[in-house]
Specification:
Layout lengths: L3 E11 L4 E12 L4 E5 L6 H8 L7 E6 L2 E2 L4 H7 E4 L11 H11 L8 H11 L12 H13 L5 E5 L7 H16 L3 E6 L10 E6 L2 E6 L1 H6 L5 E5 L3 H9 L4 E7 L2 E6 L5 H11 L6 E5 L3 H10 L1
Parallel strand pairs: 3-8, 3-9, 6-7, 7-8
Antiparallel strand pairs: 1-2, 1-4, 4-5, 9-10, 11-13, 11-14, 12-13
């Protein structure tokens, strides 16, 4: 059996007035030694899915297996074999770096020395601060310490729930480099993130929105599914420009993307000419129009409107 298998996972949370559907029939699997990304915005259902797979939450229905063990009936075996890094920093902030590592190693009846080879690259960056309290570390160092603690018992599968949220760009880059080195050691990694640019760093990704998996594929495969010409446009007044484009019945979608708007038409012929006419009719100045290649975020936006 594959390291992670989920079949028709459904999860909801009753409130006073309604029922919030967090997961709506999630089915997917992860290959051994794969970095599999769950990509989606806040509220998509990523954390609920992770808590079910790490045996911290019971699903309303559906089945899941981790490392061949059932998440409901064999949860004790799963907890011995996985490493879990939740989205919120959850180590003991009053303990030092060294004390946190020793504590988590002791829980799993091991030592830092026994599995030093697995955490060496990360631990060497933490070593100058080993006597510092965890609560006094920077955001990037906290994430490295949390990853170290998740790896200290040599897990076969690593669950990382939004590990780079709130971390600076340099630390994000370093963190992903560490994940790729761990992959080379045969560890299967399931990672969630709200950052679309991190999707390209995964072997395969699942796009998750409002509890539904919109697509599962390689990053290149998802981009290849886009299937329509994509245009970017920029002018002096961007908000009125977006309203003018959206008002045209021939436009399928238009959304802001950095300094530009990305536009998809229902008809493919003369798309550039149509954009030029819209810009001219609105008397917009300094207009720049270009045909561009889609990225993961464009694909996500397209899937949301389907």
């Amino acid at each position: 059996m594959k390291p992670i298998v989920a079949e028709n996972i459904i999860q909801n949370y009753p409130t006073k007035k309604t029922v919030v559907e967090a997961l709506k029939g999630i089915t997917f699997s992860v290959e051994k030694g794969e970095i599999f990304g769950i990509i989606g915005p806040d509220g998509a259902g990523k954390t609920s899915l992770f808590r079910i797979l790490t045996t911290l939450l019971l699903a309303k229905s559906g089945k899941a297996w981790v490392d061949g063990f059932d998440v409901v009936t064999e949860y004790e075996e799963i907890r011995k074999r996985i490493g879990y890094m939740p989205g919120k920093f959850s180590l003991y902030q009053d303990l030092s770096v060294q004390e946190n590592l020793e504590f988590f190693a002791a829980i799993f009846n091991t030592t830092i020395e026994e599995n030093y080879g697995l955490v060496k690259d990360i631990y060497q960056q933490l070593e100058p601060f080993k006597t510092r309290r965890a609560g006094a570390l920077s955001g990037g160092m906290k994430q490295k310490l949390a990853l170290c603690c998740a790896l200290i018992h040599k897990p076969t599968i690593l669950f990382l729930d939004e590990p780079t949220t709130g971390v600076d760009a340099v630390s994000r880059k370093e963190f992903w480099e560490m994940l790729h080195r761990l992959k080379l050691q045969g560890i299967t990694i399931l990672v969630s993130t709200p950052y679309m640019d991190e999707a390209g760093l995964c072997d395969r990704v699942a796009l998750l929105q409002k509890g539904v998996m919109l697509s599962i594929n390689t990053p290149k495969g998802i981009i290849g599914e886009f299937g329509k010409p994509l245009w970017s446009i920029k002018a002096n007044e961007m908000y009125p420009l977006m309203n003018a484009i959206k008002a045209d019945s021939r436009v399928e979608s238009c959304y802001p993307f950095g300094q530009y708007h990305h536009v998809v038409f229902k008809v493919q012929e003369d798309s550039k000419e149509l954009l030029e006419k819209i810009a001219a009719a609105g008397n917009f100045k300094n207009v720049e129009i270009a045909k561009i290649e889609p990225n993961i975020e464009d694909c996500f936006m397209a899937l949301m409107t389907d």
